[in-house]
């Protein structure tokens, strides 16, 4: 395992070093110490490496991640794993706003709670939150799965497209065009797989599914108030 | 009984109301019939103070001109010299503005790349991601980073020559995008990760940052992902150009792109296009002032867009302090948009040459703003590219002609002192004297 002291060597050196790890590297496991809430830690990675960040991170940790596993042993600031393409990002603590925003793929696991706008504009990413999520989560979510073991705040799934939302606890309110939907066997399967991969102690049958009513897909004057 | 000898009472002539004009009433009827605002492409059509209201003074005894065909007038510009390892070097200070694949057909995007590359300048992606055609045919490609993040991915980010964070557009500052169902073909839907045929709205605000402090961190993230190699532009719609330019620069922008209200759009509400934002002319001096106040004029470059049509417009924008300009609508016209040869078809669509702006409907007779395979096939990207290159060359030659006449051996040496204004409004906005005076509104001491 390679240890990288962020405080001593700086952010540029960290990302440059991690970017230099090609697919066939032997140095597959990295530990980043003295994270101290720094922004843009381990962004734009594109190799099957594992990066363990000791401490909490600032904005955009693991942004645009591909292939890599980034494990934050602390909490994450805004926009963790934003626009992730593939790979896995695990947050042991809580995550701030916009966790997993616009993510195209991969798995984001938040062991604590996530704040507002979790999964905003998500485009294929899977997000599993062990705790609760804040308001306006999955706003304009396009595709992928958002799984919440706790409760969801106001306006869940506002203006969403084809993303699937699974919530075990309560939902304070649903956003425009978001409705509860029938949980079919294929959804149970998706959920079972995600819960297992996210190391989450819950049964798929305990969840409710929410998705788009698809009423805002084409303009209709009678829905004008919802736009 | 009526007295036949009495003179007939003269009748007033029917008078059209200036307030309730025929076009206004037609819009009221359209709104009443449909219940939805009018959506269209293009920029503000109303007349606003513009570059036409400025004139160059030319050289005489106090300044001497350069020989038109003999003496050099350089046109090169380098963008992104502040932080990027690889700034963009262009032969001419006219770039192609961001126009989305989706709004435009892929052959049209290809033609923009071909024409821009042949003329030694850059082109820009748009809301909808980067296509192979435009990457392949553009020697310098600017990749837009928009609120929607459609098609956004690190691979394309790293094969871009610059990244443009779009905060706003002149046609719709504060507004998001829209692409109506007719244009969401399989390919467009696939790139945007959306169902086919839906009316697609793009957000007006970035999903993962708000405000200048966040923007600074966002720029840091993008630089880290791209290894600090390429310039990062920030594009703003003209509203509060002094403050927005200041904040963009403080957040770390290498280049500020400033788009005035005449700037085109693929599809926006008409009420938005016509009523929100500042005329391009009113944007430039405050933005330049902001750069000067920060001590960064010419170090952070300023690209101005919105209604640039001629080499004179290019020269005027540069004289007011821009480093380069960007063109959208004019480039489309050069490719063949609104060409009289399609008049019969424009008539069928209920419009006429020059007024066709229903680009969002995807039925463009010229095959440029459409995803319909048959219409697209009418457009030849090689010929289109050639026409765009020619047009870009003419813009450059015209701007050089003016610069030489003003005695400058580089377009960047044009300055406000070369200009005067024809109207009080233009004098106030451009801060150049009213023609024949040494005064402009707001100038101290008068
Ligand atoms: C068809 C069309 C599509 C456009 N798409 C985008 C876009 O995707 N992103 C963007 O920032 N601006 C977009 N714009 C605005 C242009 O980048 C540019 O700001 C504007 O066209 C400049 O003004 P001009 O058209 O008067 O030259 C678009 C403009 C047009 C005409």
Question: Can you summarize this structure?
Answer:
Chain A has 227 residues and is an alpha/beta fold. Helices cover 11% and strands 23% of the residues of chain A.
Structure, described:
The complex is a heterodimer of chains A (227) and B (446). Chain A is α/β, with parallel strands linked by helices and 227 residues long. Chain A has 2 domains: 71 residues, no CATH class; 120 residues, no CATH class. Chain A is elongated. Chain B has 446 residues and is of the alpha/beta class. Chain B has a single domain, classed as Aldolase class I (TIM Barrel), CATH 3.20.20. Helices cover 33% and strands 13% of the residues of chain B. Chain B has an 8-stranded parallel sheet. In chain B, helix 9 runs parallel beside helix 15 and helix 10 packs across helix 14. The longest helix of chain B has 25 residues. Chain B is globular, with a radius of gyration of 23 Å. The N and C termini of chain B lie far apart (70 Å). The interface between A and B is large, with 43 and 33 residues. Bound molecules: flavin mononucleotide. The site of flavin mononucleotide has 32 residues of chain B, from strand 15 and helix 11.
Give the SSE layout.
The complex is a heterodimer of chains A (227) and B (446).
Chain A: E1 2-5, H1 6-9, H2 11-19, E2 29-33, E3 50-54, E4 69-73, E5 88-91, E6 107-110, E7 123-129, E8 143-148, E9 164-167, E10 178-181, H3 185-197, E11 208-212
Parallel strand pairs in A: 1-2, 2-3, 3-4, 4-5, 5-6, 6-7, 7-8, 8-9
Antiparallel strand pairs in A: 9-11, 10-11
Chain B: H1 22-34, E1 39-40, E2 54-56, E3 77-79, E4 88-90, E5 94-96, H2 106-119, E6 123-124, H3 132-137, E7 141-145, H4 154-158, E8 162-166, E9 177-179, H5 186-192, E10 200-202, H6 211-225, E11 232-237, H7 241-250, E12 255-259, E13 268-269, H8 270-275, H9 280-293, E14 301-305, H10 311-319, E15 324-327, H11 329-335, H12 343-348, H13 373-376, H14 381-405, E16 419-421, H15 424-430
Parallel strand pairs in B: 5-15, 6-7, 7-8, 8-11, 11-12, 12-14, 14-15
Antiparallel strand pairs in B: 1-13, 2-16, 3-4, 9-10
Bound molecules: flavin mononucleotide.
